Amino acid sequence: MIYTVTLNPALDYFVSVESFKTSEVNRSKADHKAPGGKGINVSRVLKHMGQPSVALGFIGGFTGEYIKSTVQQEEIQTDFIQVEGDTRINVKIKSDVESELNGVSPNISSDNVRDLEKKFEKMVHGDTVILSGSVPNSLPPTVYQHWTSLLKKRGVEVFIDTSGQPLVEAIQAKPTFIKPNHHELSELVGDSIQTFEHAVPHVQSLIDSGIDYVLLTFAGDGALLATKEQILTANTPNGIVKNSIGAGDSTVAGFVSAQKEGMELADAFRFAIATGSATAFSTGLATRSKVESLLADIQITAYKQ
Ligand SMILES: Nc1ncnc2c1ncn2[C@@H]1O[C@H](COP(=O)(O)OP(=O)(O)OP(=O)(O)O)[C@@H](O)[C@H]1O
Ligand SMILES: O=P(O)(O)OC[C@@]1(O)O[C@H](CO)[C@@H](O)[C@@H]1O
User: Fold this and answer.
1) What pTM does this model have?
2) Rg (CA), the chain
3) How many CB atoms lie within 10 A of CB 282?
4) 3-state SS of 138-153?
């Protein structure tokens, strides 16, 4: 089974504003809500790709209820832990540029953590766990590292999509897969990564440390996938970007989905990039037909040192 873990879900509130101005009353011309948080997005895109998953994580209050009921209506299995306090609301403003205001997590107690860890104890070889998004302030930044070690000992594949200190800590436990964007890699290695050439030595040392897959994305400027055996690069297809929120989560879902379908590495990489771009080119999250329409526009090439 595939499990997604969202420690810090969110009700995403999207507003479109003609020309957003600070220090003024701005009125939106359109808005909509969606259940969010990185792992939840991964579960939703997996569902669109035809892959079942179980969404785990912490939810609370009316916002938590909204997330749970919406995700369940989409026929995604959930096994959330109920916490005190309300799940945050993240505001996504689309104007001349995209701006985001992400809220803080409600408090997560040690009992809440124990309840989640009990669920990990039932996971077995062949399962995949995707640990995605920010870590609430009430938890240590080492949680992903701790759970990666614990899950790997159980034979579970661990995919991590996070940033900052939780990513620094998590890579010590050698997860199966990480998906930094070039800004996150730059922060991780203390260097400003702008090109594939510049990224390769850093990506190579992550692979040498024992991570199986590093998928590095550069938004609309391509991506690079490294394993112990090979380094591949991809272009991103051209299109009109309608919403880049959740594009990275879609890339992760695309890769996992392709692997579960048994695709070869290059095809799985192409599928992952198509899924990320399908979300970027849509108002909601990627659909399977949109992904398939983009596959032919993505060329995968072996990287030459
Ligand atoms: N301008 C774009 N054109 C085409 N595809 C895009 C564009 N921006 C993002 N994507 C798609 O989304 C994927 C992830 O983008 P990005 O590198 O911005 O990751 P991210 O920062 O994790 O994403 P997110 O915006 O969800 O946080 C890219 O690999 C690509 O497939
Ligand atoms: O604050 P975090 O956990 O880093 O990111 C949360 C978030 O911005 O990520 C998703 C898009 O990737 C959104 O659904 C959600 O609001």
Assistant:
1) 0.97
2) 19
3) 18
4) CCCCCHHHHHHHHHHH
Domain encompassing residue 5: 1-17+30-178
CA 111 to centroid of ligand 1, rounded, Å: 36
Can 249 be counted among the known catalytic residues?
yes
- Please state the atom number of ligand 2 nearest to the C-alpha of residue 10: 16
Q: Taking each helix axis from N to C terminus, what angle separates 265-280 and 247-260, rounded to the nearest 10 degrees?
A: 150
Separation of 36 CA from ligand 2 center, angstroms? 7
Query: Which of 44, 217, 243, 290 for a ligand 1 pocket mutation test, highest count of atoms within 8 Å of Cβ?
Result: 217
Cα distance between residue 17 and residue 97, in whole Å = 10
Task: Read off the CATH number of the domain in which 208 is found.
Answer: 3.40.1190.20
ipTM above threshold 0.90: yes
Residues 128-147 pLDDT 10s: 999 999 999 999 999 999 99
